[in-house]
Amino acid sequence: MQRPAFSFLVCPDAELARAELERLVAVHAAGGFERRAYFGDEELPARFWQDLSSPGLLGGSKLVLIRRAEALKADAWKELSPRLAGFNEACWPIFCIESAWQKGSPKLPAHLIKAKPWEAAKARNWVWQSPGLTRKTLPGFVLARFKAEGLHAAPQVLESLCARLPEDASAVSSEIAKLSLALLGGQEGQGGQGREIRPEHLDMLNSYEGLDVWGLLEAIQEGGGQAKVWRHVLGHGGEDALFPLIFGLTREVRTLWMLASGEGGKVRLPPWLAEKKESAARRLGQVRLAEALSLALDAELSVKSGEKSDVQALELLVAGLLRLFGPTPQQVGRPSPMSRRS
Predict the structure, then answer these.
(1) 237 vs 76, more confident
(2) What Gene Ontology cellular-component terms does the record carry (predicted)?
(3) How far is residue 329's CA from residue 56's CA, in Å, rounded to a whole number?
(4) At what angle do helices 169-182 and 242-260 cross, to 10 degrees?
């Protein structure tokens, strides 16, 4: 089967997009690919354009991944169009569209929809789309992770587990991996179904409702300094707060984005809170909100890739939020309580 000349992965959940990327590579990468990654919200370097036309090391093929491709400007797509017009055996460009969905569809820039590569990919079925995990699809994802980890649970336990998990594939995978590690060496379940998760095991899960992300953002904007912000984080999960923070921040930013875009009618909030968040959304603006989402995605990627520990990623994420939303950016350079613990 010939691989696509290029591909689009359209999903706000980076973990689901990564899984689809690995599936595509497994199907089409008979000889393997040398991987290169770039970001659409940064200026594309000269090396990127070279990668699109030159073979990899030792003449091999390259997979050129463009994260946050929704941020690419119209001029970039104009320059990309002729370079993507034919099939290049030496290079497989894959564009990740990571913006939030609205009304059941991805929100795409008008210049991307009109771009020839997008039109060609849609016509040839080179576009994979997913809104991310939902309450409806979460149980199926959990069962797939169970199968991969050799776990099983009674229907009632599965229902309780799903109710406590966020709609975030990376966080769900992390929690199930934690359960699997805790049950390491356990006995096989009935019928060889694997190790059984029981109700008492659910106490090991992080609380995704305990961390008040809106309260955290308010504390940052009020300028109370790092001490106040870290007390908020450490008081709601401590060193295990990373994935609850990523999940909550992503959800909060999407709400603020909708309010900043004039779509407050779609946000279900008490009137007093809606007014407060709408004021904050206008003050923060879409540029800073988009950067906050990027901070969350970067923190998640750094842990999943093994580049950073949970504690290191949490420190960088909080420091980034202080820089982005705080009135006194110089506070970011001071040591955090997490650093003093290590």
Answers:
(1) 76
(2) DNA polymerase III complex
(3) 41
(4) 170
Mean pLDDT, range 108-119, rounded to an integer: 95
Whole-Å CA distances, 78 to 4, 42, 111: 20, 17, 10
pLDDT, tens digit, for every residue of 123-140? 999 999 999 988 899 999
Cα angle for residues 177, 182, 188 (degrees, 5° grid): 95
Strands 105-106 and 127-129: unpaired
User: What is the average pLDDT across 294-318?
Assistant: 87
Q: How far apart are CA 210 and CA 97, in angstroms?
A: 30
For residue 236, give the amino acid letter: H
User: CB-based contacts of 59: which residues, under 8 Å, 6+ apart?
Assistant: 90
Rounded to whole angstroms, the Cα distance separating 56 from 51 reads 8
Strands 91-97 and 62-67, by their bridges, are: parallel
Instruction: Name the helix (H) or strand (E) containing 293.
Output: helix 271-304
- Closest alpha carbon to 5 in 85, 62, 69: 85
User: What element of type H or E holds 19?
Assistant: helix 14-28
Distance CA 250, CA 217 (A): 12
CB proximity list for 153: less than 8 A, separation 6 or greater: 146, 161, 196, 197, 198
Tell me if the pTM is above 0.85: no
